[in-house]
Sequence to fold (304 residues):
Amino acid sequence: MYEWNEAIQKMIYWIEDKLSDNPSLLDMSKQIGYSPYYCSTKFHEIVGMSIKSYIAGRRLAKATLDIRDTNERILDIAIEYGYSSQEALTRAFVNAYGCTPSVYRRRPVPIALSNIQVVLFPEHYNNRGERTMNKTCLKNAEIRMEYLPAHKYIGIWSDKADGYGDFWNNNNCDEVCGIIESMRHLSDPVIGCHMAGWHYVNGVRKYFYGFGVSLEYNGDIPHGFIMKEFPASYYLVFFHPTFDYLKDNNEVMQQVENLAWNYNIEVESFNSQKYQWNEEVCQNYQRHCPEVLGYEVLRPVRRK
Fold:
C-alpha cells in the first residue's frame, strides 16, 4: 500500500533527524499517528529489519563517518550517538567491520556502511490510481556537450543486466551502496558517487554501477569491484532538468533515454560540428538526482 510505504518513509526520515537524541518507538509512533506495535510490525515488514536494528546500523554509520572525517575523540563520538561508552562503540565497530575505530581512523578501508533506507518509489505513487503528472509541467529532454577529464572508475560491470532494476536483482544493494558511501570522500568531483551507466557486451548495452576516482588514485579496491581507467572525452549529455521523483520519474527517464539511444549522430550535428560515438574507448554514464540535478545520460563522442 502506498500509504504504508509513505508512513514508513516518514519514520525513516524522523529517525535520521533524531539519531543523536536516542529516538524511541513511542515518540516515533506519536509523530506518525499509529500505535507503537503497528509501527514496529509494518517497519519490519517493509524495511526487512526491526526498528532497533535499523537505528543501530545508522548510528554506527554516522559514528564511523565522524571517526573518519573529524578529529573528535572517539569517546565523544560514542556518547554523541548514544553508546554508553567508548568500549560499547568499539564492540559494535569490531563486530560490524572487523577492526577497531582507532585502527580505521589511521587507515580507512572500504566497509559496508548502513545506508538510509528508501521504501517509497514512483510505482507506489502510480498505483494510487491518480493522474501521475501534469505533462505541461515537464520540459522536453535537451542536449548539451560536456567534457569529462581522464579518470579511473571503480565499479561492478554486469554482463547481464540491462538497467538499474536488473542490476540489483543480482547484486546486494545495501552492501554495494554501503561500500560506495564509505568511499565517497575519495570520489571524483565530476564522475562522482553512484554515477552508473552502460557498457557494451557483444554489441549489447549492459549496466554497471560504482563511482569515479581521480587518475592518481591507487588505493584500496573493494572486494567484488574492479578499477578501470578511461581517457578524457567529450560527451553528448541528454538531459531533463529537476523534476518530482515520485510523480514524474518514469516519464522523464523514458523521454531522456529515448532521445539518447535513438539519436542519429551520422545525420545530426551539434553546434555545426559533426561527431561520431566514442563508445569503444569510453563508457556511457548516467546521472540520476531528480530534485537537485534532474536526469542525464552521457554518451562519449569524438569529432569526425
In short: The CA atoms of residues 76 and 156 lie 37 Å apart.
